[in-house]
Amino acid sequence: MATDSHGRTTFSRGVHPPESKHLTEDRPIEPGPGVAELSILLSQHIGAPCQAAVKKGDLVQAGQKIGECQAFVCAPVHAPVAGKVKELALRPHPVLGRCQAIAIEPQEPASPTLPSFSLPADFDPTRHTPQEICEAVRDAGLVGMGGAGFPTSVKIQPDAKPPKHTLLVNGCECEPYITCDYRLMLEWTDQVLAGIRLAQRACGASKVFIGVEDNKPKAIDAVGAAIKRAGSGSDIRVVSLQTKYPQGGERQLINAVLGQTVPTGGIPPMIGVVVINVATAAAIADAVLYHRPLTHRVVTVTGEAIAKAGNYYVPIGTPVEALIEFCGGVTEKSAKVVMGGPMMGLAIADLNTPITKTSGAVTVLTRRQIGQAKFERRQTACIRCGRCLEVCPENLSPTRIAHAVRSNLLDVAQSYFISACIECGCCSYVCPANIELTGYIKTGKIFLARQRKKMPA
Amino acid sequence: MLRDITVSFAPHISKRLSTQRVMLDVLIGLVPLVAAAGFYFRIRALLLIGVCVLWCVGIEWVCNLIRRRPNSLWDLSAVVTGVILGLSLPPALPFWTAAVGSVIAIGVGKMAFGGLGANVFNPAMVGRAFLTASFGILMTTWTVPASIDSAMPKLSPADAVDTRTQATPLAWSKTAIKNQTEAKTYSRRLLLSTITGEVAGSLGETSAIAALLGGAYLLWRRTIGFHIPAAVLLAAFVFGGIAYLIDPDAYVSPFYHLTSGALLFGAFFIATDPVTAPLTRRGMWLFGLGIGTITLLIRIVGTYPEGFMFAVLVMNGLTPLIDRLCRRVPVGGLPRVG
Known about the structure:
Chain A is 28% helix and 19% strand. By secondary structure, chain A is α/β, with parallel strands linked by helices. The radius of gyration of chain A is 21 Å and the shape is globular. Chain A starts with 29 loop residues before the first strand and ends with a helix. Helix content of chain B is 59%, strand content 0%.
């Protein structure tokens, strides 16, 4: 394990943005709004997009599969509620701009009811074969709910090469503001734990660590107590980590907890590690034990401008605008609506953008808050102070990469390892010259991807 | 309800820090040095620094006007250059000479390269180098600090006549050793004076205590890292020590090297100018070791008594190369080709 000078488990470098979790951390999970239309995007994950399996005018049942595809890296989508397919049309997508979606008109636009999850008294993960678990997870359309959206069934694939020795559960929630995973660990502890044990069974890992930042002592205690209750304390350990951004980045988490590094350009499975988010773990339990597909999720609606900030259980496809209105609208002049947290979240232009499987939060930032951020303050010249190098968790040279991209020197950007950037935003966060380093690097990556498409090797 | 929302890249929050604040910290760090200069060389010192600041700021403003660039005075970098240039000048330098130095520092050293962040060489050192080359006598006329009569024994009849000026400790010891006169005894006595600053020299370089105080502030504020100053001082100490061990009669002690001349002032305030120093930590070590070594080579072997300015300029020129040599390796190691 890697530790800092105070003996706290952590990775090297990183930043300490204000946590701002006090707005929602004591708000229990509540049902969200009932809406007149849900838009189920057909691409909510990394991998091939789904094909619609329904037509306009079709009646659908709650939990019915409405989009799927045969590719290996893919996750089907399901109807969250019973209703009618209003249309197949383009809808705003937080990353892609626009994306094909299935619009469903619910039979009755009622608030969702919180699901009841009771752990079966005879719960035993070994009663399910790894293949069974993996198939149930795939059928339920599970993807990494922490943000990346990689199909979970691919991650926990049994008999994968190389064999998996460790399952790492990500309960860090290092992004400021967001508290949905924290509430899950507090309120749905047994479900999260059941999901973890099922995932462990599927991928065959012998060791399990749950990483939680030390600003969530209640969650650490709750999960620890649940492990004791379940009597499986021998192979599952809760690890308290230093509160530091981006502690929840999987490469940083692996480094902090296991002291191992994932090779540049590689992924955790290459060193025998599987990382899943706590929300994904909860969904695995739902999928395997109750055959419930992933149709709802907990979303933190927060920001100083929101009247009733809280953690809400909402159907996937709920438009952001409906959520904000449900939370009492905005109280102050708000200036930016972000899907996700303020460090890595995506600012959206269209408030009809629906909640996806990977949206953990809607953060509404006020003018005062973004006044501190880069785009409102004038960008000045780089004075090469090196602060971006000092905070980069991947030990890159952000200013060199960004300036290479700005001068359109993509080969230079590559010689400074542009593709190793995890886009955590630490460099932009500290830059005294207000340079949008992360923005330039992201732009460079897009240019490179286009170049590759044009000129196949 | 929600209108005029902004869309931009993440992150959407940022640390409250600006270039202006960084420069302000450097200025705060310079306060002890300016105070020491004021104490030892009285009002003239402050006026000289003031002239440099005014001219630096003025020339930057004019250059921005000519280049049709937005006014950049509020980033305070021109003020920093002015104060550092002023502190590096001899107390009795005529004001017009200081003004010429300021024009060269900002006009040629900085704005000709494209302004803040684009210059290759430390602007203040460019200005000072120009003055050294052009006005050699003015740049080596050292006033005795106002607080004392005379710290050093006179080495020649010419010295004895003039009570207003005298040699700097480094220049004095160089001549003294050559002439075999009481060098050892006096260099030991002088060591204490170089620490407090009661010696002849440029405005900012006489007091070791003031430089350490200001440097400590910059380190505490994290405006500078410890790497460059540590490397400069380490190299100077090691080379000074080697020379001293080889022949203690011919060379002064390494401690004397550390406290006299521009070494401490420069290690904390000149070599650490981020624009002209390498980005990576390994690069910073190389850069600092280079400065310390070249400074000592000039002091021990060269004809000049002090070589810090030249050392900084040489290493500034090598900075792009050092940056190229010392690339950072990603946490996950070098990516496999293919």
